[in-house]
Amino acid sequence: MIKYCVDTNAILDLCYRYYPPDLFRDLWGSIGDSILSRQITLLISQHIHDEVVERITLMNYVPQVFEDFLIKFKVVTIAKTTYEIELAQLQAELLDITPLSSSIAKNADDLSNICVAKLNSATIITAEQGSQLSITDKGYNRLKIPDTCQHYNISCHNWLPLFIYIGL
């Protein structure tokens, strides 16, 4: 079984922007079947869950679609208490190796998902695009999930490799 830790924008992309369930029933059915057959499992941090709820409200999306996503795909929401020590350690380490103190402070949501992925040996699914620079390069100016994952050797990609893995 492959565990996937899903980022806020990837959830919003699947549920609302690019693959909404009313237009992509077969896709949603295939993901659901893959979860039921234990081919994959989806995880999110409590930080990501809360951020998704905030964005749904902000963008006037229908909350039921996200609730259906959580139920249909048996999404495991990892409590903050499970990863809070790792999150503090990750933030401290990033402060030591990057000049991005404000970016690190603003990215607790993204960093929480990185902690959950590390703790669960999961692959992160995100809509973010990485930089050509390493997070330790002097010219690096904004912390991004793919770059942080690359630094820590955590697998990270968008939805497409998962779709391929489950046979779509």
Helix content range of the residues, please? 55-70%
What is the C-alpha radius of gyration, as a whole number of Å? 16 Å
CATH class: Alpha Beta
Tally of discrete structural domains: 1
Query: Count of helices?
Result: 9
Quote the CATH topology.
Rossmann fold
What's the architecture, going by CATH? Answer: 3-Layer(aba) Sandwich
> Mean pLDDT, as a whole number?
93
Give your account of this protein's structure.
By secondary structure, the protein is of the alpha/beta class. The chain has a single domain, classed as 3-Layer(aba) Sandwich (Rossmann fold). The protein contains nine helices and five strands; from the N terminus they run E-H-H-E-H-H-E-H-H-H-E-H-E-H. A five-stranded parallel β-sheet has the order 3-2-1-4-5. Helix 8 links the parallel strand 4 and strand 5. The longest helix has 18 residues. The model has no long low-confidence stretch (mean pLDDT 93).
List keywords for this structure.
Rossmann fold, 5 strands, 168 residues, 57% helix, alpha/beta, 9 helices, 5-stranded parallel β-sheet, single chain, globular
Short description:
57% of the residues lie in helices and 11% in strands. The chain has helices at residues 8-17, 25-36, 46-58, 63-72, 80-97, 101-106, 108-120, 145-151, 159-165, and strands at 2-6, 40-45, 76-78, 123-125, 156-157. A 5-stranded parallel beta sheet has the order 3-2-1-4-5.
